[in-house]
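Agenda item 2: flavin-adenine dinucleotide complex prediction
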Amino acid sequence: MAGEGTLSPTTPDGVLAAVQAAVADRAPLIVRGRGTKDGLGHAVASNRVLDLSGLTGVTLYEPEELVLSALAGTPMAEIEALLDANGQELAFEPPMRHLIWGLEDAGTIGGAVMVNAAGPRRVKAGAARDHVLGMKAVSGRGEAFKAGGRVVKNVTGYDLSKGLAGSFGTLAVATEITVKVLPKAETTATLVLHGLSDRDAVAALAEAMGAPVEAAGAAHLPAGVATALDLTEAATVVRLEGVEPSVAARFERLATILRPRGRITRLEAAESAALWRALRDGLLFSQDRLLPLWRVSVAPTAGPSVAEAAQAAAVAYDWAGGLVWLAMDPAEPDAGAARIRAAVKAAGGGHATLMRGSDALRAAVPVFEPEMPSVAALTGRLRHQFDPLGVLNPGRMGAGR
Amino acid sequence: MTQLAMPPLDTAVLARRDEIVGALRRIVPDGVIDSEVGMRPYESDGLTAYRQPPMVVVLPETVDQVAAVLSWCHGEGVKVVPRGAGTSLSGGALPLGDGVLMSMMRFNRVKRIDFENRVAVVEPGVTNLGITRAVEHRGFYYAPDPSSQIACSIGGNVAENSGGVHCLKYGLTTNNVLGVEMVLITGEIVCLGGAHLDSGGYDLLALVVGSEGLLGVVTEVTVRILRAPETARAVLVAFDSSEAAGACVADIIAAGIIPGGMEMMDKPAIHAAEDFVHAGYPREAEALLIVELDGPAVEVDHLLERVEAIARSRGAFECRVSNSDAERMAFWAGRKAAFPAVGRISPDYYCMDGTIPRKELPTVLRRMTELSGKYGLRVANVFHAGDGNLHPLILYDANVPGELERAEDFGSDILRLCVEVGGVLTGEHGVGVEKRDLMPTMFDETDLAHQIRVKCAFDEKHLLNPGKVFPELHRCAELGRMHVSGGRVPFPDIPRF
Ligand SMILES: Cc1cc2nc3c(=O)[nH]c(=O)nc-3n(C[C@H](O)[C@H](O)[C@H](O)COP(=O)(O)OP(=O)(O)OC[C@H]3O[C@@H](n4cnc5c(N)ncnc54)[C@H](O)[C@@H]3O)c2cc1C
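Presented output:
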């Protein structure tokens, strides 16, 4: 199995063999599911690809136990369809179409977990890491191991499967993943506040999140991006989900609280679903894909000041202001990295990830937030423990190579 | 006390005790306890069957002191056991005879509350309930609610990834902690997370939560606070078989309802609780469910109706809905007092904590009854039914020679049974020393080696809380030997330790 090319194992044992061969040959692997996140992270210098798109199949699904296991290359679309047929979903709301990169493909469960995907419901339900219960994986040492289990309450040893979520395949190659699934809400509605400035909008969202209405989404679309959704002015949106009478009561309550802030309208279930699907999939930033795109996570009230400092071409806020999407002028050599990261620091900390950018830009700018020295050293030691020879996606994370 | 193998005492360290005490006093002048009497309260945690006086106790007050103590101990090869309020039920805070016990209970300040961003920044010695107390005047609360919440520290909660009856809907500690500041054994300070969500790099916070004091000493915690639900109501449902109660739980979840809490008790637990607090539980019931729904009143009423209908369809012979907060609290009173209630009917009890797939409940209860016969010890069950977390309470008398050992063997059999049916050894109490030697029933050598590798990245010399969680201490260099220093190794014949 020496040399270049693509290895496409269809079984966990095949993955083990591929990693062991890579270790024996000291030949790094590019670990890939369906390739939908190839544009995310630093390019990996290698010509040996470990393609997991053939490692498919749901291995366990017990709706009444709220648990599903699937081999890592199982398409998200397949999982979504299966859950949907049972009135369930992955509550962390991973993108199902990666429109920021112009893709219609939702990728694989392994990809969603290994980048720690999280959609608009993050504010209520958490990210992928909050829903991972267990994992089987092969570390960069060429050893197969398991972590976690299939039950929600489990403190038996370190929570390694959560820790591996978000590691971009640089510590281990996941072969099988077990996640918590949840019932879909019976209905949903969205409250829209019209025409607010960014700061007023984020203040309104803070008020909504602090009200006893269980908001399951809180975003602000300034006028510049709202047009992508056929809106003519800025829209501040709060999603409510649940049983019909509850959604109605909470809508009324929220409307009473927010009415002094501006004009309010209501999106019913279908329209509401379409709006949040668009936000989840990145529709707002799907038009001009040459614009570098940042995804910034800060304390919600810090969102507007980071956006101002960024001097972005276009801005949108999710997570009540705590997730700021910034589309930048492509002419800027660092896509505003220095400014944005300084603003994040000034705002009390967080992280800025370059979600979209040319190969040249991603080679020039750290895609992931540079870590404080003690954390960077710890990260390096962890990586060394799991992948001492650097055979798994070397250079994809961190400051690049 | 049963014999428990701990790492061999380091006689060289013990011989230097005076020097070590002196060094600690220089760093924390007013916070060192080295007298036998003064150290006695630290001899055990909530798992009182195990006792061991520490070499010395230190109570730092500042991060700098924590860093100085740890880096000194690291340099001198001295072991350190972190401790919060000492309520651990798995012996996580059990001292080592040749180790420094570091109590974090002087870190007791609420540092910052930010209602707009819905976070509280607190020191690790603040109690779990203390966080809610600090934010409730504005209608907020901290969701994870272990029964020990009045006493246990948030630092201990982070270390144990503690749960509570409301975790079914609101998540465990790991889902509610946004950041920590902690000190590594080297004295390095690391900040993970903060008021923002998720990590820009590896999710080290996910590894730290639930790490039982083996990875670092937590000196600050940022938690998510939530607006309290408008109302809560509970329904008390009685069944004449635990199968029916289990089926009812499954049906509620299958109907798409995730209650705020869903607890089950078996007959012995019902009787013990009833005798103790007179909560009005039906004594003839074989199984009792408490289902609590929270949210806006219309939602709660709506879902209560559905839950009641489901319960009736599963043959419930009694369904009592709370009509006031006082009544709701009365329903809970028995459940919350279950441990002390059992403590009244038996000189001693041993609390277990496995998790199982919910559907296995009838099988597990039946086999537990068989085991009860085999060991000649009674068992009462309280159960976080919604998430499959069992708390069998084994009744024994420590004064009867051999009973403690029998109780422990019985407990181990129960935990093995949990693993056998697809569950895990511990749902919320942690491995500590108690379940340490059972780890291989769930994980093979390679699985454990990968966990230990996390330890090696944080604490290569195994100086923080050694002897807990892992049945054997493997030298980190040995774990890595085969690939790193051994040059090219033929595959797949990988030599193992
Ligand atoms: C009556 C009773 C009821 C309980 N109910 C529940 C329940 O419902 N749910 C539940 O999950 N648990 C429960 N517990 C168990 C216990 O309360 C929890 O595990 C709790 O989180 C322990 O907190 P503590 O502050 O007492 O920690 P300790 O017992 O002092 O320590 C526990 C572990 O945490 C480590 N540690 C403590 N502080 C730090 C720190 N600052 N930095 C690093 N490591 C640290 C220690 O080394 C140790 O390994 C119960 C216990 C009792 C006695």
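Discussion summary: The pocket of flavin-adenine dinucleotide is lined by residues B 45-46, 81-89, 92-93, 104, 124, 146-148, 152-153, 155-157, 159-160, 162-164, 212-213, 217-218, 339, 428-429, 465 (CB under 6 Å).
Owner for follow-up: CH.
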